[in-house]
Known about the structure:
Chain A is mostly helical. Helices cover 55% and strands 0% of the residues of chain A. In chain A, helix 1 (2-14) packs across helix 2 (37-51). In chain B, the strands form seven sheets. Chain B has a five-stranded parallel β-sheet. Chain B starts with a helix and ends with a helix.
Amino acid sequence: MIEDAIRKFIAEELSSNGLGESLADDYPLLDRQVIDSLGLFQLVGFLETEFGVEVDDEELVPGNFGTIGDIARLVDDKRA
Amino acid sequence: MENLLHELLRRSAERYADRTAVEDGDRCLTYAALEARSNRMANLLASLGVSRGDRVGLYLDKSLESITGIYGIMKAGAAYVPLDPRAPAARLAYIAADCDLKVLISGLEKAGSWAGLLEHDAPLEAIVVANTDALGPEEEVVGVKLLTGRDVDQQSDTDPAVRCIDQDLAYILYTSGSTGSPKGVMLSHLNALTFVRWTVERFGIGSQDRLSNHAPLHFDLSIFDLFAASAAGAAVVLVPAEVSVFPVHIRDFIEQKRITTWYSVPSLLSMLTLRGGIQKDEFPLLRTILFAGEVFPTKYLRQLMGLLPHVEFFNLYGPTETNVCTYYPVPPISAERTEPIPIGWPIDDVEVFAVTDGGTLAEPGELGELYVRGTSVMQGYWGDAERTDRTLVRDPIRGELRDPVYRTGDLVQQNEDGGYRLLGRRDHQIKSRGYRIELGEIETAIYAHPRVVECAVLAVPDPMVTNRIKAFVVGRDGVSPKDLARFCAERIPNYMIPEQIEFVQTLPKTSTGKIDRQALMTAL
């Protein structure tokens, strides 16, 4: 599942305060500062290689990265 | 005419009363309003017993209230101590106890964290919750007097006119310390003004300018934003935290807020270059981009300069202890260049020189440690005479001079044109995303875990953020990387927590029994 792959990436690469893989699909990643500017870059790099999608500059907005669900939706839309 | 940072505000309030001083989203304060409001804050602080020479903490998200707080604290004769609103309570309580913060200017958004500071023995007696007029019973904290914006309103708007001199401390900035605790860099009004006045002249800042403030207030890049603006009667526009996460939002912010001078760490500018969707000749109003805090990867700098040919770019260099001590106006960069740009030449009233390992003045081309002399150099580390004596030393070349010079620990080489190039560090201090980090402080945090036997923290070079942090840990039964990361989060700020924690059986040792960092680096 896309969500699980994203969750795993966030837990292993971004979540330096030890949040782990218990992150829910609707956990507010931006409000809780799980994703910062650098994290966003790493995450986009991951999405592009892992799912073979290309994320446009203009798609880097909070609506697409607020939660794991949002990110999965973005990937889904890009692959459709 | 007094040489004080808050005098800049007073004079601009006389000259530019109705011009915007600070903008925070849809809210803004004119110079007259900021002056009046900070006078009220100063009077409230005085009524709480704050007097010349005291320290007052700032513990709230960046806002009109925090800027008002900064001026109010200085007008009360005290030094402001900006606390990272996101740092763990234990670390902030250490700082509060270290410099004896009895009064805190805070915000409602931090209400949930006050009790934590007290539990860790912060000596707080009063908290001014500047951004609310009323508090509920749930906000109460035992043993601390709580005040609100309404208490600020009730004060006189007349300047309390506390007599200060320019050598008095204006602020203390805590940075990472190698022994495991943060250290407080004491800076006077004169230290800041030496730098601020130079910037206003060199960058031609005027009352029409609109300066961004991206850096947090506990980061010394904010000194330029706030005080160059008030020196010139310009507006400072606060960059909301959520804007800096998304490069296209930074682009829109610069455009929509009509920013003329941008100052930030290079990593943010790299991201803007790569993912900001900037068109050629974007930002027609932007005149100047200043960057500091880390090396700007040359390829991204060249790309950004190519997109914005009408903008002047400057590399500013200087540890917090010296404000900024050198600068480099960046000329067009050739397509082949990969080497980082130089740190350049000293600013006015500052002298820099390099000393070789042999204790002689380094000749151009010779490697040496950079020393800084002049009125931008700090007063010392708060409460740590020993550390102060190690870094603020007699001039090793001209022993007859009595004023101290600051040893930066940075290794440099002077070019034939007199400018300097930065080559490395003498110690284990590193930079990551512009933050200055002592690897030893991270190791101390990890060692505090009862099941950690041994650890070594390394900086892994990274083109985007200068360094990423990796920890190698020897642990006993069942401690996981996740546990350890969570444990660190209670002790050190997020940017210091290793991005990777790897558990190993043993750490390689040198012949003298020390952890062999070189071998670990090679193994990466």
